Amino acid sequence: VQSEVGSKADAASTNIFFLVYGGTIVFLMQLGFAMLTSGFVRMKNINNILLKNLMDASVASICWYVLGYGFAYGVSDHRSNAFIVLESPHADAASHVPCLFSTFTQHHPYSIAYITTFSSMSSAPPVLPSSHIHEYYFFQWAFVATTATIVSGGVAERITFVGYMSYVVWMVSWVYPVVAHSVWATGGWLHGFVSYAVPEAWYAFNPGSQLAVATPANAAIVARNAVTTTLAAASGGITCLFFKFWRSGQLCVLSTCNGLLSGMVGVTAGPSLVEPWAALICGAFGALVFYGSEIVMHKLKIDDPVGAWSVHGAAGIYSVIFIGFFAKHDYVKEVYGNPVSSRRYGWFYGGHGQVMLCNIIELIFIILWVGINFYLLFGLLYVTKKLRVSAGATKHLSELTGHQTGNYGGSCLCTLVG
Amino acid sequence: VQSEVGSKADAASTNIFFLVYGGTIVFLMQLGFAMLTSGFVRMKNINNILLKNLMDASVASICWYVLGYGFAYGVSDHRSNAFIVLESPHADAASHVPCLFSTFTQHHPYSIAYITTFSSMSSAPPVLPSSHIHEYYFFQWAFVATTATIVSGGVAERITFVGYMSYVVWMVSWVYPVVAHSVWATGGWLHGFVSYAVPEAWYAFNPGSQLAVATPANAAIVARNAVTTTLAAASGGITCLFFKFWRSGQLCVLSTCNGLLSGMVGVTAGPSLVEPWAALICGAFGALVFYGSEIVMHKLKIDDPVGAWSVHGAAGIYSVIFIGFFAKHDYVKEVYGNPVSSRRYGWFYGGHGQVMLCNIIELIFIILWVGINFYLLFGLLYVTKKLRVSAGATKHLSELTGHQTGNYGGSCLCTLVG
Amino acid sequence: VQSEVGSKADAASTNIFFLVYGGTIVFLMQLGFAMLTSGFVRMKNINNILLKNLMDASVASICWYVLGYGFAYGVSDHRSNAFIVLESPHADAASHVPCLFSTFTQHHPYSIAYITTFSSMSSAPPVLPSSHIHEYYFFQWAFVATTATIVSGGVAERITFVGYMSYVVWMVSWVYPVVAHSVWATGGWLHGFVSYAVPEAWYAFNPGSQLAVATPANAAIVARNAVTTTLAAASGGITCLFFKFWRSGQLCVLSTCNGLLSGMVGVTAGPSLVEPWAALICGAFGALVFYGSEIVMHKLKIDDPVGAWSVHGAAGIYSVIFIGFFAKHDYVKEVYGNPVSSRRYGWFYGGHGQVMLCNIIELIFIILWVGINFYLLFGLLYVTKKLRVSAGATKHLSELTGHQTGNYGGSCLCTLVG
What we know:
Three copies of one chain form a homotrimer. Chain A is an all-alpha fold. The first copy, chain A, is built from 15 helices and two strands.
């Protein structure tokens, strides 16, 4: 196991280590979200929340394996397009992608229902090392699972279990992969646009997003991400604390938490593109965007128990706009390779507005794509009365549950279908 | 501190980093187990559980240092055997092993009671770098501590403090090292058998088990471990959720958690040897094995508050059998170097059954060794009435505790001896 | 993103990865401290504690960016001194330091109030890669934030919000940087003294302190740190458990936790300088130092709800003394490069007492510097009546808070100023 003395570490291996580490830490956010949401809802709904969070990570990992990852990052050739990968033409390429869909399309391009038999498996040509892409599956899975989980807070105490599971399947198998392929995959129509982009803006662990660490430039970017994320969170939390205090005379823990999150979301579109002082500004305004959005949500009487829209939606949109102003020329060059002479950087540094334009196009595309798809899904759930929990359903619960375990004041950790 | 520009990272150093990282993350499982077990037991026993978990990690680290690590992985020569290392013949070799036992046997081979004096220490020859093996001690310690902790759930609310501490000392100093040396150490009689093996099946963080990451093949294996562990957990959790719902009409958080764990345990015998789709199958059946075992346990009226046997024992046994069927030829070649022509791989891929045979032999050895040793220990504890908490003891508790601190509804975080 | 096959990982990059990893894990301690302190205080003060912990990390990150990091580690030349960095003479050097103060002094050496304009930013010369020091900012920030947090336990339920925030600003901007520069920075007057030193003794994650992992010697030190920290914690916890049991007949979880912490603090002055067996001794006596200090504190009627002084102060002082006895010659040579012939190592190994003398000088300097500064700050807060919460203030709270959210038995997660 021990390497020979004097041999050097492989760069690709160090990157894999970095991705496995990053995915593991991002996955810790599931714990954080479970605790955050549990802290916001009533005691009787905690079991429901915990079950949703366990299930969305589980269902996401399977949907991501069966369809999502292949749609988003499968290796493609002539039949692919700029939005999605529909088949993997090369057998050896497809075998690198840990996605059931790609495995199928590799053999029978037009039939997703083809079941590979054991005999065919044993005759497949040996490819060594055959799994170079597993680390991407794992890292991207931690993202997509986090993205799915965020919504669980926004619909806490409201949505049925069936409705929530439908959302997760639709999100991970279809909606997210198209955005991911468009923005991040080589060949995606928005690839190369300046921005880590909106879905990534929905989580808070930026350093891993550079995907590689083994060269000096990459490592410097990773370190800068850590710094700007920290500073944006700090100024967001402090801003929200004082703003809330000014408005209501209260020092509020919940507002501070959401301010911290909003600050991080606010910088997530490009944590490596801004200076540390800009991250401070970014976080402060991100917190104000959150606060303003919360006021609007209350005025419009839109129900969002944990403020998920205000934190992740409003501050996420703000984030891509912010980058349009504050992306620094040197950093854009370092991250994307654009020469400074192209003037593709933030307006405040003298850029010509391409970054802002690209980001707005990207934003409109994502809002339309996600909006239409979920309008269809939730509309279908609504008309079939699978969307909302009825007022009686939760009351009914305590009478129907059979055995009583756990510490939650006699309540049971088992819950019934919405 | 900063390296010179252009110099490359040492492979051995990157592996040490990987092991320290892995040990740290595995140790996080102590927190998970503490929370899991606390969630299953009655409020009044939480203090007891937390104390047991703190103590088993502490006692394990000392026993592992004084005896266990030396027995399992000490450097040995002519007097060693295939089960255990009884002495370290070379002074320079022994000084690499952070184990008190090895340090002793280095100087006086037949006397464990020899106390190294300060004068002798200062005259020892300088060896630089003298601690290349510390990372193994640390990583393996995180394992053995986790293994010890798992049992704390199975005996929660039942065993006395003295009984539990006796179990930890016996486990870490004697029972586990023999299994570890037999299966994993060079020279162990089961070394090279196909399987990460049962004790490793008792924990859930597989990527670290490859022990190295600095070469492309190792890194690919690490990444595949992360993927298959994720998918097995997901399918285990979902399977258990639906199976429980079908049987009882309840959506049960506790069953889902145990299903997730059973799925991970189910794939742990060889997460790098199976395809991702096989991990899905593995996790689903692992959850059913757990479920079936729970039914049997209830029928037999065997007391296991958190289902530790069903999750870690039953699903662990299932795991090594599963590998006998599903170990893929390419992956066995990648991990163990066996040429495909040897046909040492899973039956479903056309292997000749050696893998299955080896695994069953290993299983029988481990069950016999562990069974006999703990039969002796627990028998001794039983006849001396040190094993079970008497019904009156816990009641007695609240009267005897002196001061009242903490948030647990007036209960005290102090507890009396069983 | 993927590196070319066969290319090797850069050593500097691997070190950056290690620092980002280390900072992330150290920051997890914030969660641990929040839970520890919450477990010690009364239910009604939990919100207050959580808010303080959120705020000290936030305020620390900004103060560390604006002043602290520049004071401690800014690049300096002729105008620097052995205690603090007051300006960064070279433009290109300063741009590497993510500290607002350094950025300012770079342009206008004597004016901290100079606001860099956007126009000047866009004309700054491009420096690539321009952020090699971000990882140090991040890692050191995790330390200073932890140091600040520790005190929150010691003043839990007692100090006002304004008083606590004043403490954090003073600590992170001024008190800590002078200690850090003196002890750790090149050019600091205590630099090269043998000891990781007292402020570092106030946290518990030692492996990261080596700052680099990419060479074999560094990696070996990292691994040894992990082992000695583990063993010292274990023996500290066990010692405290039994000592408390002997004194009071109780098996106490809280004492065990503080014993574990005291053991880790006790070895933190030099975890890489002692043998594993010495770490066992170190932890045991560290726990006794904690226990003795607690008895003295109670006799003197000094109020410290969580025992923060006894764990971090008393055991921290003990730690630097311990190193004076037990620093091993080979390890001192490995870590600091002192030749064994200089006899600069522990007295028990035949050293000539320089280590002990240096550590005592360092200790006296730190105690005087920290003591005088906080005497001034807390004195000012005391005479302006901003220091202590009045008895009525907390009662008043429940009447004034407006809305009721969260699970804490009807209490609100919002709290009022002091």
